[in-house]
Amino acid sequence: MKNITKTLLVLVSSISISFAAVAGEVTLTGSAKASYTIGGTDDAMDKGIGVSNELKVAASGELDNGYTWNYHLDLDPGAAGAVTNDDAALTIGMGDMGTIGFFDGEGSLHSNLGWGIGALGTGSDYAGTMTISYGYDIDSEANLQYHTPADLLPFGLSAKVGYQPNIGDQTGGNDYKNTGAINPKTLVGQSMTQYRVDAAPIDGLKIGADYANTDGSTATAQEAESGAYFAQYAIGNFKVGYGKSLYAVPLTDKNGNVTDYETTSYGVEFAVNDQLSISYTKEKSDAITAVAIVDGASSNTKTSVESDITTLQAAYVIGGATVGVATTETSDADYTSGKEEKVTVLSIAMAF
Description:
It is a single chain. The protein is mostly beta strands. It has one domain (2-15, 24-173, 189-351): Porin. Helix content is 5%, strand content 54%. It contains 2 helices and 16 strands. The chain has helices at residues 2-15, 123-126, and strands at 21-41, 44-63, 68-77, 83-93, 99-104, 143-147, 158-164, 191-199, 205-215, 225-235, 238-248, 258-271, 276-290, 302-318, 321-331, 340-351. The chain has a 16-stranded antiparallel beta barrel. Residues 12-21 have low confidence and may be disordered.
C-alpha cells in the first residue's frame, strides 16, 4: 500500500514541472431525456414524468514534451433544478509511461457492471426498484489513478490502480487547493485503494475484475473489502454477459448483522436490426446475516435473503433519438422477505 502511494506521488511530481501547453480543443456534448415512470410495491403505486439534460464540457491539448492532457466537467441539474458542476477529471497521457489522472466524482474502477447487458443500460442499474449492495468504488470521492499504456501487454490486457487518500473528502466542485476534511478513524476507514484489470483475449470477448479495500478502519470483527469480475461475449447480433460481485461489510460485531453481500448477474442482448435491440437480464443478490450466538452455542449460524431481479428492455433508434421501454420486477426487494416491487420506464433520449 505504501509503495503504491509512493509510486503515484513520484508520477505526480514528475509531471508537476511547468510545461508549455499547445492550445487545446474545447467541445460540448450532452443529451436530453424525458421519461414516464410507473412503479410500485405490494401496497403502493407511484407515477412520475421526468425531463433532464446532461452537458459535458471537455478540453484537450498537448504539452511541449509530447505528453497529452484531457479535461472534462459535467453540468447536471439536481432534483431542485440547480445546476451542479461535478464529475470532473484531468488526465495526463505520458506515452509509453501510461496515464495519470486526478478525478473528482469520476474514474470508476468497479467492474460490477462490466457484464454490460441491456438494450438501454446494464440490467436493473438502468431502471431498478432497489439499490444493490455492490461494495466500494474509487469514484465515490476525490481520487488519484495510474493506468498502464494501451497495447503494452498481450491479449489487450490493461491495469489500473486508484488511491482515495481521504474518504471524508466529499466530491462536487472541490477547489484545486482543497485540503480535505479531517477524517478520524471510522468503521468505513480513512483511505481506500482499488485495483482493476481488463483483457480482450479473443475477438468479441471481454473479461475483467477489480478489488478494493480500505485503511484506517475501526472494524475488529471483519474488515471492509469488495470486488467483482465479469465476462461478456459478442457474436453476430447476440451478446451475452455474466458478472459476480462480493462485498464484505466492516464490522465490530458479527452477531445479528449482515456480514456479506453476494450478487450474480447474467443476461442476453439481441440486435434485431440496425434500429431495434432487446434484452433480458437476471440478477440475484444475497444479504447474508450472522445469527446471534445463543446461550450454550459455540458459534453462530447464517441466514440469507435473496433479492431476485428480472429486467426486460427494448430500444428503438429513430434518427438521432432512442425510444425505449424497460420493465423490472423484484421479489424479496431491498433484501426484505416477501416484498415485491415493479417499475416500468418509457423513455426518449436525444444525444448531441
